[in-house]
User: Fold this.
Amino acid sequence: MNSMQITIGKLKRIIRETIESDRPLTDDERHERVGYGFLGTIEQDRPDVDADLAFNGALDAVSETLGCTTAEAHRVLDSNLGRHLADGISDIDSASTYGSVYDSVAAQVRRSSFRRDAVRVISAGR
Assistant:
């Protein structure tokens, strides 16, 4: 079987995704892409960590450090930048997941290169 063969189901999915790509994703839709950003990376790479608690710590760290809204911080965490933030956390204290994630993410977000990239993600609206 040729791996490049397109079925009707795949074609419908491609058309649907193309139509949907013309509009910004809602936060819920974006968050469903669990495997892509911060949450998915934590869930995949750190199964011993409470991923939701880690996400909440990261969300607060991004919004407070950048001075942006929670929705904008959510957008950053669900982007490729969120994956980089999760990868950049060297140690998560299970007794203080929220605090250790908050501190690590806030330190990463303070870097000027991250701030520049975050502004691009936020302004893109996706």
